[in-house]
Amino acid sequence: MNKSIIITSIFEPTEAVKLFSHLNGHNLIVIGDKKSPENWHCENTTYLSINEQLKLDFQIIKILPYNHYSRKMIGYLLAIQRQADYIIDTDDDNIPKENWDFPQFNKAFDCISENNGFVNIYQLFTKQKIWPRGLPLDLINTKNNFSELISFKDCNIGIWQGLADEDPDVDAIYRLTIDTPCYFDKREPVVLSKGTISPFNTQNTIIRKELFPLLYLPTYVTFRFTDILRGLVAQPIMWLYGYQLGFIDATVIQKRNPHDYMKDFISEIPMYQHCERIIELVSNSISISESIETNLYNAYKSLLNENIVCEKEMITLDAWLKDLASQINVA
């Protein structure tokens, strides 16, 4: 299988990047930006500077802003052009453990039953009070009784989310109030059924080829909302086609790059405001009679109508979908 790892970086090759570059059976693509060092180089890595990105024939390159995380989509498109079967999202501060990998996509796993709404998936991996970024704030103190919700059954995974030890992906409220490192317990993977929701991010995540359109990273929302919004839009569309979201224990150690927690908090406010409404809007705007691409467009159109995204988002999304279609036609 052709597996591509996509990272954006504005630093010299980090420990994480170097380790990912030496993983057998994986192609590492690193997307640079204007702040990236000149003469960036790492063995076994495809690195695209700004100048090299401009040579690619992708419409989205003409409209993506510089110094922005959404430029990662250039890496996705390059991986798709190179016939990737799976695309793996991670960052340059996530150090892969020795056992770093993802489970099979079609197999029996522990599965949380349908229609439980948002759940704090971290509670299945630690007793520590901690929650994923994007969990509705009124659920922070809710204790899920997972023992009554889980059964072992065949699953069809569309996306696997791996956790991260030490400095995992949590919101600014956690960091401003608790800010305790977390080392998750080892346990078997857990899969969510239709109507049971958890935020997922771009930290340690693999997606299968059939769902590549859902990789679209919203470009004109706040930085701390971008990947969470992507994941919230993706889940109702995945359910429509019979795919599920799964979680595995921590296979990376995050040595987080410096952040200003108050700036993060301000950037996360739209996420706190809209996370539950997004699921409702997307669910009401999609149809099994349509393609994934059309449903993705209609989902964002519904968000536009509610002023959760702006008109510029639709322009970028349209370019993404046209670039995807061009790669399919080439293949």
Q: What can you see in these coordinates?
A:
The mean pLDDT is 96. This protein has helices at residues 15-21, 50-54, 72-81, 172-177, 223-240, 261-283, 292-305, 311-330; strands at 3-8, 26-31, 45-48, 86-90, 94-96, 106-112, 117-118, 150-165, 190-192, 196-197, 204-208, 244-254. The strands form two sheets. Strands 1, 2, 3, 4, 5, 6, 8, 9, 11 and 12 form a ten-stranded mixed beta sheet that branches. A two-stranded parallel sheet has the order 7-10. The protein is α/β, with parallel strands linked by helices and 331 residues long. It has one domain. Helices cover 31% and strands 21% of the residues. It is built from eight helices and twelve strands.
Secondary-structure map with pairings?
Elements: E1 3-8, H1 15-21, E2 26-31, E3 45-48, H2 50-54, H3 72-81, E4 86-90, E5 94-96, E6 106-112, E7 117-118, E8 150-165, H4 172-177, E9 190-192, E10 196-197, E11 204-208, H5 223-240, E12 244-254, H6 261-283, H7 292-305, H8 311-330
Parallel strand pairs: 1-2, 1-4, 2-3, 6-9, 7-10, 8-12
Antiparallel strand pairs: 4-11, 5-12, 6-8, 8-11, 9-12
Helix pairs in contact: 3-8, 5-6, 6-7, 7-8
